Amino acid sequence: MSDAVATPTLLYLVPTPIGNLEDITLRAIRVLGEVDTVLAEDTRTSGRLLQHLDIKKPMLSYHLHNEHQQVQRLLDRLERGERMALVSDAGTPGISDPGFLLVRECLARGLKVECLPGATAFVPALLKSGFGAERFTFEGFLPVKKGRQTRLQELAQETRTMIFYESPHRIVKTLGQLAETFGPERPASVSRELTKLFEETVTSTLAELHADFDSRTAIKGEIVLVVQGAKIEKPSKADKYDEA
Predict the structure, then answer these.
(1) Helix, strand, or coil here: 210?
(2) Which end of the chain is more exposed for a tag (fewer CB within 10 A), N or C?
(3) Is the CB of residue 106 less than 8 Å from the CB of residue 78?
(4) Which of 241, 232, 15, 235 is nearest to 119 (CA)?
(5) Residue 125 and residue 224: Cα distance in Å, rounded?
(6) Quick one: what percent of the chain has pLDDT higher than 90?
(7) Residue 12 carries which DSSP code?
(8) Whole-prediction pTM value?
């Protein structure tokens, strides 16, 4: 047997529920209770979760607007042996949320990082869409302005199922642009308020989804949009022989 001491984990990426608090895992609860500090995208949101779990821990704000300034300070503390858990407001940190930069720098310094499995919004939305899940591409949020049309044109011939995150106030515009670029008859699925009381998934064509959501007086909740990939046109046998 080796006498080597296992390298301790110093940074944990801990998924948190995207709505239903019952989706927290037993391992996540244990880790949150054992670490020295919790890094939170919004300390108020994560504070309510810790209070619900009856966990009292020091919290530090770590979000999109301060992560570059915070990384060096956090690395110094981690190198002194402080153990930290990184959480986002909901779901798995690092997926369309801060986390990548800190993980990269930890690994560069030889600091051990663990990522716990757990809640994330795009998996249930993908499976509920009924589209192929064997091969898919996660696109996250489309560019808001610069590069948006270019990216849509690039994805028009993508044959894999595509997954996007979108905000309630931009979903109508996005559905309209997708219908124009991908074609109005392309099948798609919109999921919102996943795991919550008013969870909704609507599957139809892009044109029909655009008309549906455009007619609504109010749209609430974070949205996952799943779009079926482009169909590959296979040449007929007659075409094959003609070419020969």
Answers:
(1) helix
(2) N
(3) yes
(4) 15
(5) 6
(6) 89
(7) E
(8) 0.88
